[in-house]
Amino acid sequence: MNPVSPAAAARAAASATTPSAVIPRLDQPEALLEAMLLIRAYELRLSARSAQGGTPSTCTAVGQEAAAVGVVSVLTADDLILTNHRSAGHLLARGADPGRMMAEVLGRRDGYCKGKSGSLHISVRELGVVLTSTIVGGELSLATGVALSQTMLGRPGIVACFFGDGAAGEGIFHESLNLAAVWKLPILYVCENNEWQAFVHRRETMVGERIAARAAPYGIASATVDGNDVDAVRTAARAAIDSIRDSGEPFLLELLTYRLRGHFEPDDQAYVNAAELAAWQARDPIERLKARLLAGGGFTTGDLNGIDARVNARIDAAMAFAEASPWPDTSDLLTDIYA
Amino acid sequence: MTTITVYDAMAQALAEEMRRDARVLMFGEGVATKRAELLAEFGSTRVRNTPLAEGIIAGTAVGAAATGLRPVIDLLFAPFLCYAMDELVNSAGKLRYLSGGQFEFPLVAIAMTGAGWAVGSQHNHNVEAWFAHAPGLKVVMPSNAADFKGLLKSAVRDDNPVLFFVDIGLLYQPGEVPDGETLVPLGQAAIARPGQDVTLVSYAKTVPVCLQAADALAAEGIAAEVIDLRTIKPLDEAMVLASARRTGRVVVVHEASRTCGVGAEVAALVAEHAFDSLKAPVRRVTGPDAPPPASYPLEQAFVPGVDAIAEAVRALVRKLH
């Protein structure tokens, strides 16, 4: 017999999951803008490459940067994140290295997952981004267990689970909300309602306008907010997290945003209503933040150009790093199957 | 040695492992209701009832396993695993690999199956081969009380996802269980009866049927060896091949349907690696490619019986003479 005490077990488990890498502080307007610009530049660079051929395609979240940066920026280092196939924003806002992410997308050895994930299921455990699943709704099925570990092992962090309006159509969405409510699990459900469910518009697949309306029947508090306004997202996310900490119960935060590009690069978006797309382009979260900073934040055009230049240099360096990274050895085909 | 039922052997295994490791917890449909002794000893945090929702039961186990707990879940009947396939196959089986080894999934999923309760094919469907075909999972299906206890304890201690199938017909069968710590390693088959003329390869409820067939054959002068696989994946290839080379004749017996079943895998294994030793073709005696019915005589007819096994052996032996 080799008994393991609850305290020792908790310590061992905590040390195995507590984020260890450097998580950036995103609390100043300039840092928020830079994070959003980095996400945009990262996704557009990869999209441009895949359009040329020879580079694996990605699912982007262009236009949704305020949602990702707004929520992630108010999480603490103890909190854990589950995301999905549109994960670049959540990962980069949390401090993931764009070079290692690009290496992963290209299938290279220095990718966060040794090239085995590609773009679709990048997890970075050292940053607390765990169990990324590209099965729509997969993150919802796993978040309850991650939150159960947090509570049973006495860890302080909450669990932020990012999913889309498409995932809210999966049965597992309802199973997850119900169990989280019954077991009082500390989960911040973040629905990035981007109007698109792969190639189908949300209005074809649901009655009603709001995913958040589905929280109340399970006894879960919710809020809906403009997901293209990073300050509004931050305020709402802070309030949601306070609610989780005060009540010990989950919260559903719906962020109204829009997927400005197609489902999967390259995508000509021939199925998208041009007027609707134009209306949302006019509400681009990055342009809105820039305008606000220029109007009243004490920023000049020169300041903004400087941020742009820094971001572009980082993406250039990231792509160079990824391209220089070697392919995995074919012997890696049979590693990491079993523990 | 103490004689207890399979159900009690599993209860002992669960209690011992929960006592040993505070990270072990159990939840599922009716778990806290039916396993009141576990609830009394370990409390409602570690022994939980759940909604009748297999997807989130399995998903919760997968998420918890990756982040520090060691869950055991009871999904009741094997056909209900269809609702948990995404979580078990796409998450537990793949996310270690897809993440480049960042996570491990120490969890056990228990489900009952097999003829015996006349419940029909939405409660009785031997689906073990489905999970053996999925990467990253382990699959266990014991045949006796001692192995149920020893394999369940090993499954709880394993750092990988383990599907633990309970043959309904065995659940209240008594058997001798060693006193004290009992561990049966995953991936190790057992010779349930030695013999030199033919090898019967089986697992779960059809192991005792094979033993009865071996008794009948012994009276005719045919010495049958019976191998109990115990673990379907990883398969104990070495033991199967060694026996096949020794006897030169192999009959695979299982209740699950024939096509792409475990028997096909064993037959292919023997053909690939022990062909030169074979004195006759490998034979399969299995359930038919049909949904298991409820009616008692039909349900019994589904399961390989003593006569069918013995006749398959006689046919192989006749081929030599």
Can you give me a brief rundown of this structure?
The complex is a heterodimer of chains A (339) and B (321). Chain A is α/β, with parallel strands linked by helices and 339 residues long.
Description:
The complex is a heterodimer of chains A (339) and B (321). Chain A has 339 residues and is α/β, with parallel strands linked by helices. Chain A is built from eleven helices and seven strands. Chain A is globular. With 321 residues, chain B is of the alpha/beta class. Chain B has two domains: 2-177, Thiamin diphosphate (ThDP)-binding fold, Pyr/PP domains (Rossmann fold, 3-Layer(aba) Sandwich), CATH 3.40.50; 190-320, Rossmann fold. Chain B has helices at 6-20, 31-34, 36-42, 54-66, 85-92, 95-98, 128-133, 145-157, 206-218, 237-247, 262-273, 296-302, 306-320; strands spanning 2-5, 24-28, 47-49, 70-77, 108-113, 138-140, 162-167, 174-177, 190-193, 198-202, 224-228, 231-233, 250-257, 283-287. In chain B, helix 11 links the parallel strand 13 (250-257) and strand 14. Chain B is globular, with a radius of gyration of 20 Å. At the A-B interface, helix 1, helix 6 and helix 7 of A face helix 4, helix 5 and helix 6 of B.
